[in-house]
Amino acid sequence: MTEALRKDAQEAVRSLRARIDHLDAASIDLILRDARSHYAWTDRPVSDAMLHEIYEITINGPTSMNTCPSRFIFVRSAEGKARLAKSLKPKNVAKMQDAPVTAIIAWDPNYWQRLDFLFPHEDRKPMFAGKPDYAYDTAFRNSTLQGGYFMIAARALGLDVGAMSGFSNAIVDEEFFSENGWKSNFLVNIGYADETALFQKLPRFGFDDICEVI
Fold first, then answer.
1. Closest to 192 in 3D by CA, of 144, 159, 156, 170
2. What is the pLDDT of residues 194-205, one digit of tens each?
């Protein structure tokens, strides 16, 4: 059975590469090169179907040992926004309130206990049991990575995003995760942006400034 599944996976990759071997320049512009962080929004809504599609794309991104530690809370209601506003720095409240949806990118400290489902071909739980520092590092690193996948997925589907870290993680965790023990990482506003609030794109380093080939 395992060998058959491996062969199916290998064939799926070959088939994908036969269909498409790279994104075109316009697609790369959309998701990264010419994309912008947005903090002003139109009132065009984001549907549940769109949230499901963003998640389906996001969850297929790779994580260490397929740990998938991220958890996602989509805050859309007035009540939810009021709760989230308690955690924000004053200048960020309007940015969040005006966005159709704000995603809390979080992680579950007990993520490794699901490895029997996520990594069924080998028991990796002993790598995490009784090792809180290793479990934390793995969770934080990979939930951040999944947050990046989330932003790219949203852009790929035609949405705009604006990530925010100007908030109190402790307040978010108390307000939203007091029962399940999840931990917040960062926030992402998603929707359809009002471009009139943009200013010029800020500088980026050149390759030779921060890269080495050795």
1. 159
2. 999 999 999 999
